[in-house]
Amino acid sequence: TLPDGLINLADFEGPARERMSAQAWAYMSGGAADELTLRANRCAWDAIKLQPRVLRDLSGGHTRLPLLGRELAHPILLAPIAYQRLAHEDGELASAYAAAAQSAGMVLSAQSSVEMEAVAKAFADEPQSGPLWFQLYWRNDPGFMLELIQRVEWAGYQALVLTVDAPVHGARDRERRAGFQLPDDVRAVNLGGRKQPIELAPGQSMMFDGLMPRAATWREIDWLRTHSRLPLLLKGVSHADDAREALQRGVSGLIVSNHGGRTLDTLPATAELLPVLRAAVGEAVPLLVDGGIRRGTDVLKALALGADAVLLGRPYVFALAAAGALGVAHGLRLLRDEFEIAMALTGCKTPADAGPHLLW
Ligand code: FNR
Fold first, then answer.
1. Which of 66, 149, 189, 281 is 20 to 30 A (C-alpha) from 232?
2. Interval between CA 129 and ligand 1 midpoint (Å)
3. Any idea which positions bind glyoxylate (predicted)?
4. pLDDT for 268-309, tens place per residue?
């Protein structure tokens, strides 16, 4: 059953915090360094004002939209979040059942603590389910990557999302202060094998001699394009030139993201990045955005600034911690309802009708 008083996404935080260890809470809720970007994401959506049109005939309105060759029931997906069994023993499986029941898309993290096939089955079992994508981090081992991609394709995932903004860990002060370590029973179960330990000669830098030579470059984008038949999206591109380069290399779409403020601090808010990237890629390219989306009005503002769809991050893992699959489904329903209210009250009939004219 649901705890009482869950009437918006913020209401899940209290119950979630009570149910999680202090370390898990620091990991899930925290950002990088001074958490300026984490806060900026929220503040930027708050600072945008809507401008309604009234007396329009909205009968026949709806929240449906096309995305990568499919029709979505609404523009809300679950963002890839690692190790969800930290929040609830059912982990990503509960999130998947909830997303499928609410026709929300889901991007499964490479660092899922539940097997990718189980998540895919939860989606396949629900006729109304939305799109299911798999998020990758590059690992400098083509054999490993090939096996992983093949497994993702066989399991029925419909797109690959390569996260490009986190080749190394951010400076996660809050996590370190809390002494966060993964418990023994929560693992990235889909990434078999041990990572090669990095050996450095005296005087070498872990960053530039150890980690960065293994990180993805544009060459690896070409490699992924030739080794998978699935559409490839990049998550975490900020510069317009990078966005254009991605398109030239056959990338199918972008997720505008600063990793929820967890990687490089002092990045712009995603509400600021979004219109810049939409202008760079043109009208037709699928563009999604995440970071600080908490209200139906945020979803509508994102669409007005040029996003096709949004991804929800922390709030759904808080809902998962608070009440498992039921909590996540309830949180998604609340956000969908708020989004429909925002559309109705701004005179916006369908997602395709959202545009800058809705903004003050
Ligand atoms: C993340 N995020 C993330 N992104 C990704 O590409 N792969 C991953 O494994 C993870 N893991 C992860 C764990 C946790 C605890 C958080 C909070 C975030 C980033 C995530 O996909 C998304 O970009 C942000 O969470 C969106 O911001 P909000 O909605 O949390 O503000």
1. 189
2. 22
3. 27, 137, 163, 172, 259, 262
4. 999 999 999 999 999 999 999 999 999 999 999 999 999 999
